[in-house]
Amino acid sequence: MLDVQNLSITFNEGTLDEKKALQHINLHMKKGDFVTVIGSNGAGKSTLMNMISGSLKPDIGHVKINEKDVTMLPEYKRSQYIGRVFQDPMAGTAPTMTIEENLAMAYARNKKRGLRIGVNKKRKQMFRENLERINLGLENRLNAKVGLLSGGERQALSLLMATFTEPNILLLDEHTAALDPARAELITKLTGEVVEQFGLTTLMVTHNMQQALDLGNRLIMMDKGQIILEVSGEEKKALTIEKLLHEFQRIRGKQMESDRAVLG
Fold first, then answer.
1. Torsion of CA 160, 185, 223, 62, to 10 degrees
2. Which residues fall within 8 angstroms of residue 120, CB to CB, at 6 or more apart?
3. What is the pLDDT of residues 69-112, one digit of tens each?
4. How far apart are CA 195 and CA 61, in angstroms?
5. Candidates 3.40.50.300, 3.90.79.10, 3.40.30.10, 3.30.70.940; correct CATH number of 2-93+151-249?
6. For the whole model, what pTM was predicted?
7. Minimal CA–CA distance to 25: which of 49, 1, 42?
8. Orientation angle between helical segments 121-132 and 99-107, nearest 10 degrees
């Protein structure tokens, strides 16, 4: 479903600020894979996300989604294949529009455009049924402006908008990092349920090692633009934070620098 081949990019090349953000990254995900990505600040996690989504173009390498080479497709054209939830709860929704209008926009993402009515009775019922799944009472507030929702409610709505059209790839970019612990736990639980329900192929970046261990069937660790560790299946189930930190020190010969990765 996702095939990343030899992906590399250097920022500020030829200057004192030159940084090899990604170095020959290869990542292959089958349909239904749920891969969590961890690493310190500057490891290249968000850069990898931006390469897959199309907001950045690689110096070399290719990105294929469902066997289609999308490397040169702009972000807006790639959006028909990709659902994405960002760290900022404000980023994935239009605050001045209603819940219903936001859902209608998301629903149209991978549909052909036309002159049909945006929200009809049948579609409104579908929106209600999907909102009921997240257990926040939003199905009774379809005409409420999204800007009036709490951060957790907006992030839950963003997750629903990114998934209910069943995209080829779901990208979760530290989507619980800006929330308080209770809301983060709610969104983490909801994420697992939604991904499992739709069988979505999912790539999730997180600073929270425990979250990376709790979700998904595969885990990769990045450092300085490289994938330095990949585990899956029973090996992943047996992992602990302590074992991950030990593996980083064994591979890199030093301790991981980011406290956020340990403490979440």
1. -10
2. none
3. 999 999 989 988 999 999 888 888 889 999 999 998 888 776 55
4. 28
5. 3.40.50.300
6. 0.88
7. 49
8. 100
